[in-house]
Amino acid sequence: MANGKRIPLTPALIAKQLHEVDVLYFAEAGKILSPEQNAALRPSRQHVRRALEDLDNDGLAERRTNTGALLRDLSIEELQRLPTGRVRLRFFTRPVRPRKLREETVPDDSIRFSGMSPEDCRLLAKVLKRQGITLPREVVANSYITEQASVAVAEYVRAQKVAEKAVMERLLVAINRERIEIRTSEIKDRNNNNRERGSGTPVVVVVSGAPVPTDADINIVYAEFPPYGTITRKATAEFVMACRNAKPDCTPEQIIGAMRAVANGFNRGTQNPIGVLRKVVPQKLLDPPDPKPETDEQRRFREYRHVLEHPDQYDAETVKYAHEWLASRQPPSDS
Fold it and tell me: Which residues, 6 or more positions from 232, have their beta carbon under 8 angstroms from its beta carbon?
């Protein structure tokens, strides 16, 4: 009753009245509650709904809509669309025979939790099916379970992404280690003539593996690092392997040569020289080799040939000397 009028008893009103009784109990005992203690005494509407559902199942109460329909006879969709304040509660002084809970269950492919997207519902259905769990309709209609199901699905998706990332990282490391390349097959799948060329089933192509560095190789390269900072032997082995993944036939001497070439560009402002070397040197090994410096003899052969090819540009004495010098020597093999 409120202001002399009968009003529907809702879970919110029951929770409010329970809270008022609790507060009054402490007030009569002379206990002054803090705001936190006062809030802790307030029961949730979800708990009240579950209690009423248990009373209904035990034959101590009966829940009907304002039109007289029993809540247990409504479908999940009808329960979810039922507005607040449309449920009527009846309590019995003498318990009636408890009503047998319906054994009706929800097919895996028709799970529909209120507030969850169809994609999340389908994902949850797959997980439940793998675990061999079939949900009764009362569970799907429970608002508290619906809320926790949403949280559980979000945590499942988050954990699944972490697991997928870990798998891919480990797999890519192994693929890179074994020099295996994943390409797309040029052959179209059967019965799919609309698929574009190159979008077929991925295939694995094995590429010749890079030589695994020996302890001697690692020691040679490791001895080159101290001027640039501190590094472990394990990191050195990974560095040598990265160099050979870029250029499988590279030797420790070639790696050291590339390290020195990169280090020539260092200055006082260079930060983390070890990190720069580990990142840049493998790519540096792919650069074409620098041409050999010209020797003094090669330079003189080039210049005196130019004199004989263009005698009008020089005096007679220079032309004569160039002719005699070239006649007395064999040309260099790579000149």
Answer: none
